[in-house]
Structure formats: structure tokens, C-alpha cells
Automatic annotation (TrEMBL):
It is found in: Cytoplasm. InterPro entries: CheY-like_superfamily, OmpR/PhoB-type_DNA-bd, Sig_transdc_resp-reg_C-effctor, Sig_transdc_resp-reg_receiver, WalR-like, WH-like_DNA-bd_sf. The modification 4-aspartylphosphate is found at D51. This is Response regulator. It comes from the Bacteria. Signal peptide: none annotated. Residues 2-116 form the Response regulatory domain. SMART domains: REC, Trans_reg_C. Residues 124-218 bind DNA. Pfam families: Response_reg, Trans_reg_C. Its main location: cytoplasm. The keyword Nucleotide-binding does not apply. Residues 124-218 form the OmpR/PhoB-type domain.
Length: 219
């Protein structure tokens, strides 16, 4: 999953960036409202973690602009503005959830997972497909009830495919799940990770749609 972190506080930003990347998210971090607008206009995200008190352009204005463009990207507001009026303003502007600084990092991850599930039309925390079960919260993968260990980038490829059976994702879309802006991308990176997943989870799980991309077929 690819996330946009909009946070002007350097210490908080570094801590959250490390946390999210350690949890296998691809993350782009910007530090003001204008940069947030640019990132949103040029990249698709699975979720935006948005501070309200930003330089150059307020986070609420960034959020209003996003919703004015009819974007349905989930937005989690993270802010020190803990007055009720600020929470209401954020939710009325189109935020999907709200977390108050200082926040617990485990709670932050749980809220992110819940919003991503909701945006995919799912309520249950576990994906099940044929003989495979995956838990995004624990990163546990079971095949016929037996645990299988995946690398963080194998997980980053598998999770969006298994979350939306029948949907074709292009190689470029999967690359976006793997890497943030400053990472170098090998031309065959996606193919390498899909090859590894097929060896571990079964050759028929991920199918190649020639010239288009990859999908996990519907059950």
C-alpha cells in the first residue's frame, strides 16, 4: 500500500515514516500544504495521513480541495488541535477518521488498516482466498493452515492483489506499492517478487494478463 504523509514536524515525520516503512508501506513524505497538493495531483494513494497545522496552506484547505475533486482517497487527520470544534471541522471537510497528537503508534497503524479495509468495501480484518488466509494486522500468511514467511516486499505485492480479487493491477501500480519517491526501481522488480510468491503460495494464485498486468482470480 502507498501512503502520503503530510507532516511539517521533522521529529514526528521521521518517526512515523520509519514506522510505516517498517510495516511495509510505501510512503511519500511532504512538509507543507503546497507540496501536499502537488503530491495528490501527481500520484494515487491508498491513504493520506494529514496534519492540519501546515505551512503555506492549511491542512483543512488541502482536504477540501481533495474532496472538491471528487477524490475518495481515505484521509486520516493527525493533529494537536484537540478541541471538539477542530475535530468537527475536519470530519465535515471530508476526513474519514481523526487521531490526536501525541498518538500511540500501534493505534495509528490499526486506524490506517481499518480505513484501508473500509475503502476496499471490507469490514473483516482477514483476507481469505481458496486455501490462503492473510492477516494484515499481524502479517501472518497461512496456506492450508500452515504459516508461510514472506518478505516485506513480497507482502507489499500480495496484499493489494489479494484484497481485490479479479481486479487487474499494472506493473506500474504494483511498483508504486513497493517503492517511495526516492527509491530506485529495478525494471524487473515486480516480476521477481511475483515469482517468489508463486513458489511459496502456488503457481496459479497470481495470473499474468499479457500486456496489462497481474490479478488474483476470483474464487
Amino acid at each position: 500500500m502507498r501512503l502520503l504523509l503530510v507532516e511539517d514536524d521533522h521529529m514526528i515525520g521521521e518517526a512515523v515514516l520509519d514506522l510505516l516503512r517498517a510495516d511495509s508501506y510505501a510512503v511519500d513524505w511532504v512538509r507543507d500544504g503546497h507540496m501536499a497538493d502537488t503530491a495528490i495531483a501527481t500520484q494515487d494513494y491508498d491513504l493520506i495521513l494529514l496534519d492540519l497545522g501546515l505551512p503555506l496552506k492549511d491542512g483543512l484547505d488541502v482536504l477540501r480541495g481533495l474532496r472538491a475533486r471528487k477524490s475518495r482517497t481515505p484521509v486520516l487527520i493527525a493533529t494537536a488541535r484537540d478541541a471538539i470544534v477542530q475535530r468537527v471541522a475536519g470530519l465535515d471537510a471530508g476526513a474519514d477518521d481523526y487521531i490526536i497528537k501525541p498518538y500511540d503508534l500501534d493505534e495509528l497503524l490499526a486506524r490506517i488498516r481499518a480505513l484501508i479495509r473500509r475503502s476496499a468495501g471490507r469490514a473483516e480484518p482477514i483476507y481469505e482466498h481458496r486455501n490462503i488466509s492473510i492477516n494484515p494486522g499481524t502479517r501472518e500468511v497461512l496456506v492450508d493452515g500452515q504459516a508461510v514467511i514472506l518478505s516485506s516486499r513480497e507482502w507489499a505485492v500480495l496484499e493489494p492483489l489479494l484484497a481485490r480479487p479479479g481486479m487487474i493491477l499494472s506493473r506500474a501500480q504494483l511498483e508504486e506499492k513497493l517503492f517511495s519517491w526516492k527509491d530506485e526501481i529495478n525494471s524487473n522488480a515486480v516480476e521477481v517478487y511475483i515469482h517468489g510468491l508463486r513458489k511459496k503460495l502456488g503457481a496459479g494464485l497470481i495470473q499474468n494478463v499479457r500486456g496489462v498486468g497481474y490479478l488474483v482470480p476470483k474464487t
